[in-house]
Amino acid sequence: MTMAGNLRKVTGLGRVGGLRRVARLARRRPRVDLSHPARSPLGSSVVNCVTYRDGVRAPRGGDLVDTVEQVRKSRHGFVWLGLHEPTNEEFAGIAELFDLHPLAVEDAVEAHQRPKVERYGETLFAVFKTVCYVEHEELTATSEVVDTGEIMVFVGPDFVITVRHGRHGSLGPLREGLEADPGQLGKGPSAVLHAIADHVVDDYLNVIDAVQADIDQVETDVFADDGARTDPGRIYQLKRELLELKRAVVPLGRPLLDLADRPVRVIDPEIQAYFRDVSDHLLRATEQIAAFDELLNSILQAHLAQVTVAQNEDMRKITAWAAVIAVPTMVCGVYGMNFDNMPELRWRFGYPLVIGVISVACWVLYRGFRRNGWL
Q1: Residue 276: count of CB within 10 angstroms of its CB
Q2: pLDDT tier at 199, thresholds 50, 70, 90
Q3: CA-CA distance, 237 to 239, in Å (whole number)?
Q4: b/e code 280-298 from CB counts within 10 Å (16+ = b)
Q5: Could you tell me which residues come within 8 angstroms of residue 76 by beta carbon, excluding any fewer than 6 positions away?
Q6: What spatial distance separates the first Cα and last Cα of the chain, rounded to whole Å?
Q7: Looking at the predicted structure, is the pLDDT value of residue 220 above 90?
Q8: pTM (2 decimals)?
Q9: CA angle 72, 121, 8 (to 5 degrees)
Q10: How much is the pLDDT for 207?
């Protein structure tokens, strides 16, 4: 029976003795390969489980408990176990087998954690926020731009456990890339941790490039001839999505610096130099997000200024037309008072004269306002 074929039962029990009984019973069942990148056909949270020796995938054989014991006795190689949104019951047996700290287990199951790196004895627990750009035909005030998830990583001397939350962030391509470089993978679990951190930060940069295209489009629309009519909700939506991206990127800065500078038992010294490179990329992403935030503030202020200017122009036009209309209103109001002794009431040319005076006065006012740019 393969090691992976017993994982579903491992995730359902909390005692090693119980795990061994399950392993014996599982030998009667058909073999199920859980090493495929797709989700487990058994419907559990297990996505993948592979043993590596000298950077090369080892042949599958034996149950998980026996495999872990063999790796620990030989002090050679490590086990990489991948999970997707496990429950407390599913994770209990794994936590027992690998002696994971209860606080880290709770964080891994509950998710919605801040990016961080914590040490529990010889085990390192890291939390990464994953991001994904949501494609959309047109940015609106309700468009989702950035979707986030999480990857939790337990790193020990002879194991790596990845727990993924969210609809994206699959580690299948990452695993294939590592297996194509046995020299790097042969450096142990810390090489996997670096690869995950590098993968996550590269996704940050890709999403930032995509968000920049949306910001450029909004900026173009705001400074167009009819920019005052641009929906400000689009700008606010971009700021909200940028804040979501900022919450994923910025808190990771300090943990990456610690991994790069502080000696950690489970981190290979050669890998620490690689973490410095990842930290530099993260710094670039942080600076770009800060620049985007400032740019969106400027765009929003420019849009509000355009709206104010447009409103002032509308008020000037209304005031100018009100002044033009005031002339005939005043004259007609005077002659509409129906007094008996008013001059020119019975004069033959009185009506044409009044109409002419009104027309000339309105034309003079119109020309004056037009010359001054009010109309």
Answers
A1: 13
A2: very high
A3: 5
A4: ebbeebbebbeebbebbee
A5: 53, 54
A6: 87
A7: no
A8: 0.74
A9: 55
A10: 93
Q: Is the pLDDT of residue 271 over 80?
A: yes
pLDDT, tens digit, 9 for 90 and up, residues 279-301 = 999 999 999 999 999 999 988 88
Give the C-alpha separation, 352 to 116, whole Å: 88
Which of 211, 282, 205, 281 is CA-nearest to residue 240?
A: 211
Q: Is 104 left (phi over 0), alpha (psi -120 to 50) or beta?
A: alpha
Q: Please name the amino acid found at residue 354.
A: V
Helix or strand or coil: residue 349?
Answer: coil
Q: What is the DSSP letter of 224?
A: S
Q: In what order do the strands lie in the sheet with 46-53?
A: 56-57, 46-53, 78-84, 159-165, 146-155, 123-133, 116-120
Take residue 134 and report the two structure tokens written for it.
Answer: 């949501």
Cα Rg, the chain, nearest whole Å: 35
Encoded amino acid at 361, one letter: A
37 pLDDT tier (thresholds 50, 70, 90): very low
- Determine the Cα–Cα distance for residues 216 and 224; give it in Å rounded to an integer: 12
- The single residue listed with the structure tokens 């002659």 is 335
**For residue 62, what pLDDT is reported?**
61
How far apart CA 253 and CA 271 sit, in angstroms, is: 17
What's the 3-state SS for 170-208?
CCHHHHHHHHCCHHHHCCCHHHHHHHHHHHHHHHHHHHH
Half-sphere exposure of 257 (CA within 13 A, CB side): 6
The dihedral through the CA atoms of 86, 87, 91, 93 has a sign that is negative
Note the pLDDT tens digit of each residue in 313-338.
778 788 888 888 888 888 787 777 77
φ, ψ of residue 185 to 5 degrees: the values are -65, -25
Write out the two tokens for 44: 């559990």
Which residue did the predictor score with more confidence, 280 or 22? 280
The token pair at 262 is: 């502080």
